[in-house]
Design goal:
By secondary structure, the chain is an alpha+beta fold. The protein is 22% helix and 25% strand. It has 8 helices and 17 strands. α2 crosses α8. The longest helix is centred in the last third of the chain and has 30 residues. The radius of gyration is 22 Å and the shape is globular.
């Protein structure tokens, strides 16, 4: 029997009021494979999905592949400098034409050597001259919509989707002095098979309530009671974020509680007294600190497992620091303490959500962003909910 009932849809109503009146979301939507299949159709087929950074492919011919909502996708910089997103599925017999990353002038499928240009056009198809009504112009690699926002590359499977950038305008002023598009990412690392639902990941990333509770001592410089939730937030917004205030200027997520790398030089004094944590669902979590920005690209695998690609961004002058490598290593070591604590908590949350005693809990004022996330979800759930 399907869990996608009218009763379940109606039950979300109690999760989208003000934080004072709202309940947490039903436990089964974090554990059900059927519900994740619904989310893939309702969210991931229609929303903007982050696949990486434009800076990963700086030269003509540079490309990388990612699996996006179950689809192998090539992100490539063409000869004209434009970045495109193409299906990696050969239009002959459906083999994936390439994997990993590289630099090439064309893509050639290993199976039968159909070759494609960097713009997806079919360039060559051996021994197809006897095939009736075969026109190469009909058989290019399908192209996805693509948008670049602050250096992050997003794709969308929905040709009718609205542009992304206007829906992120509330957060744009918080990033202006970071100039993320021109920041440096030393590389990313991927954590695979993490045992919790993608929504648990999003909630934890933007949860001010646990800041100096779960992270007692290591995050006392950024206490829970300095969380702030900019207003207004409306249902047209695709970003949910909070400010996280410090007890001193230029704080950092490491044992010294201070920024280890050079601070972004254009930041105002107010910006040096806070971090921000933002969700751009359903795939990107991004945050800021005085000396860096950081991001998590979240990819659901099953209802109870995800992969996360993690990266840091720094001002270009920081990379010129003679001790950059050592400072980055020390900064990352500090972040890993938070990651381990968060991993322990989210693993146990996911396990608890399978319990017969899993609650529809209540929210603290320090969790206001969760209700905003609920509203974002509900708007899309209700739009695509199956008709009874």
């Amino acid at each position: 029997m399907s869990i996608l009932t009218d009763e379940l849809l109606a039950s979300f109503e109690s999760s989208i009021d003000t934080f004072e009146n709202s309940d947490t979301l039903p436990a089964e939507i974090y554990t059900s494979e059927e519900f994740l299949d619904f989310e893939r159709r309702a969210l991931f087929d229609h929303e903007w999905l982050c696949v990486g950074l434009a800076s990963e492919i700086p030269r003509s011919g540079d490309w990388f592949t990612k699996t996006v909502n179950g689809e192998p996708v090539i992100v490539v910089r063409g000869k004209d400098g434009e970045i495109r997103a193409l299906s990696a599925v050969c239009q002959h017999r459906a083999m994936q034409v390439c994997e990993g990353a590289g630099n090439d002038t064309k893509f050639t499928c290993p199976y039968h050597h159909w070759s494609y240009g960097l713009d997806g056009r079919l360039l060559g198809a051996p021994a197809m001259e006897r095939t009736r009504d075969f026109d190469k112009s009909d058989w290019g690699l399908p192209r996805l919509r693509l948008e670049i926002w602050n250096g992050f590359v997003f794709v969308n499977f929905d040709e009718e989707a609205e542009q992304l950038a206007p829906t992120l305008s509330r957060y744009a002023p918080y990033l202006e002095h970071y100039d993320l598009e021109n920041s440096i990412c030393p590389g990313t690392f991927t954590l695979e098979g993490l045992p919790w639902n993608w929504k648990v990941m999003f909630e934890n990333f933007n949860d001010g309530y646990h800041a100096n509770r779960l992270h007692k001592y290591v995050q006392d410089f950024c206490p829970s009671d300095k969380s702030a939730f900019p207003v207004p937030w409306d249902d047209a917004s695709n970003v949910i974020f909070r400010e996280a205030g410090y007890v001193h200027i230029d704080a950092g997520f490491n044992p010294t509680h201070k920024a280890l790398l050079p601070v972004y030089p254009q930041l105002t004094e107010e910006e040096r007294w806070r971090s921000t944590f933002a969700l751009i669902p359903p795939t990107l979590c991004v945050g800021t600190a005085p000396d860096q920005a950081f991001f998590f690209i979240v990819r659901p695998i099953t209802a109870g497992t995800i992969d996360i690609e993690v990266g840091y961004l720094f001002h270009p002058t920081a990379v010129d620091h003679p001790l950059f490598d050592q400072l980055l290593e020390a900064s990352d070591a500090g972040v890993q303490v938070f990651i381990r604590q968060d991993q322990d908590a989210t693993t146990k949350v996911q396990a608890g959500l399978s319990s017969r005693f899993a609650p529809r809990g209540r929210y603290s004022w320090q969790e206001e962003s969760h209700v905003q996330f609920n509203r974002w979800l509900f708007g899309r759930y209700s739009r695509w909910w199956p008709k009874s």
